[in-house]
Amino acid sequence: MTRRLVQCAVATLAVGLLVGCTDPSPDTSPSATETASEQASASPSAEETTAEPEPGNQADIDFANAIRAYHAQSSQMHQAILSKAGVPADVLALAGTLSNVQGRESEDLQLLLVAWGEEPADPAAAGTLTGMLTPEELQELFVGTGSDASVIYMNGMIAHHEATLALAEEVLTTGTSPELAALAEQIVTAQPEELTDLRELLADADPTGATG
To answer: Residue 139's Cα: distance from chain center in Å?
Structure first.
């Protein structure tokens, strides 16, 4: 990816708009000359709109790499549960949503790391972080069926969410990157509700808590 594209993508992550990368606004003023003059004086320069974000500190870098590692394992879990028969429709729907959200988060974090001049760490090199499934538990999910697989999946996702939520709350006090803080805020806002959904679905699938 070119430096220009990285810069534009990071700007999109930060403000939700492709600031400085395109200018789709139509000319609706009565005078095109006046409009051009106003735009020349009001619009930031190309150098300003494509400025690279300040590099994050070590807390930001560690957070970005850790979340990417969690999401890499989550991706395997989502794919496993979505491919199985006998899984409740609500579980499949939530898995599909989480897969999409976390995929975008991973891409955004990789863009930030590259924009900071950091080499994104190999998620597999992180090992088994707090809340991750062990290789044995992951294998149980792969070979499990129906409700049994659903319970393993939801227990695993609950543990992932609890761990990544704690990391997001921490980096908001220890990090320095506003772009990464915006993404951490999204996690802090969204994941408590996702945890509630996961716990409710788990209670329905495993009311005794025998396999939780």
So the answer is: 25
Encode 115-143: b = buried (16+ Cβ within 10 Å), e = exposed: bbebebbebeebeeeebbbeeebbeebbe
> What is the CB neighbour count within 10 angstroms for residue 194?
18
Domain extent at residue 41: 3-49
Indicate whether this model's pTM tops 0.85.
no
Return the CATH number at 152: 1.20.1260.10
Which residue, 100, 116, 98, 103, is CA-closest to 180? 116
Residue 150 inside a domain? The answer is yes
Same domain, 25 and 124: no
- Give the helix, strand, coil percentages of the chain, each rounded to 5: 70, 0, 30
Specify whether 41 is located in the same domain as 68.
no
pLDDT in tens, 17-61: 333 444 444 454 455 445 444 544 554 444 444 567 788 999 999
Alpha-carbon Rg of the chain, whole angstroms? 21
* Total number of domains constituting the chain: 2
